[in-house]
Design brief:
Layout: H1 22-25, H2 40-46, H3 50-58, H4 73-80, H5 83-98, H6 103-107, H7 124-129, H8 139-146, H9 149-158, H10 173-180, H11 183-191, H12 206-212, H13 216-224, H14 239-246
Helix pairs in contact: 2-3, 2-4, 3-5, 4-5, 4-8, 5-9, 8-9, 8-10, 9-11, 10-11, 10-12, 11-13, 12-13, 12-14
Length: about 250
């Protein structure tokens, strides 16, 4: 079963020598999934196993498949914080989009003749902006949640949109970094062009979020980069109102 996947499954029959890839040579579906929609590629990505991710991609694993929660391998790799795993996925998508090399070339040293290329690839843009489940998290949101500034920079360099909102709250990755108190993630997003004045569904900016959750370091960073202190949200409350009520002396 491949519940949660938008891709047709395929058989993989690889004639690799030396006893390598023994499970794949047994004609397993490379995208076989568990009852909750986890494929082998997702399992490897979640564990931060870059080499396993590379092998599975080389044998046709669907990079855009999503599990029962709507998360792709890139979401799970971003959560793991493993730069190598995220890099393998992004390079695969980039090379497939540009048609400059076969997926096998960036995954392993094995000849492309020994692997079958999945004809149902999703685009780099699609996977970067894929929103998971009901919350609408992109991989960039996931990196922000976990405080992985290095992963955020990787995703931004690949073209991730800083403005992508969560489904219900409409919070950007910068809102998330502000709420979680991750100044380095916030810095990466700001340097990546994040809109400091983007508002959530409740009319909060990232500065409001940082102050409400008591994260002075993030609030100071946002103010240093030009966040408007006079922006208001519910009942006309400004950042100054919130900081005063929280007793955040450094940002009052």
């Amino acid at each position: 079963d491949t519940s949660g996947s938008r891709e047709p499954r395929k058989n993989v029959n690889v004639n690799a020598g030396g006893g390598q890839n023994a499970l794949l040579k047994e004609n397993f579906h490379v995208d076989i999934s568990t009852s909750d929609g986890i494929t082998p590629l997702m399992a490897a990505a979640a564990a931060g196993k870059a080499e396993a991710v590379a092998v599975l991609l080389a044998h046709g694993a669907c990079v855009g498949a999503n599990n029962g929660m709507g998360k792709t391998a890139l979401h799970l790799a971003a959560a793991s914080g493993d730069e190598g795993t995220v890099g393998v996925l992004l390079r695969y998508l980039q090379a497939t989009r540009e048609g400059t090399q076969e997926p096998m070339d960036i995954a392993t040293d094995t000849s492309t003749d020994t692997a079958q290329r999945n004809p149902y690839e999703y685009s780099l843009e699609f996977v970067l902006e894929a929103a998971s489940g009901d919350d609408g998290e992109t991989a960039l949101h996931v990196a922000a949640v976990h405080g992985h500034a290095h992963i955020a920079r990787q995703l931004l360099a690949a073209g991730a949109l800083t403005s992508a909102p969560l489904a219900i709250s409409h919070e950007s990755a910068l809102h998330v970094a502000a709420m979680k108190g991750w100044p380095e993630v916030a810095r990466a997003l700001i340097e990546g062009g994040a809109d400091l004045e983007q508002k959530s569904a409740s009319e909060q900016t990232a500065l409001h979020a940082a102050i409400i959750f008591g994260h002075e370091a993030v609030a100071e960073l946002l103010l240093k980069h030009g966040a408007r202190a006079d922006s208001v949200w519910r009942r006309g409350a400004s950042a100054l109102h919130e900081a005063s009520g929280k007793g955040l002396d450094r940002v009052i």
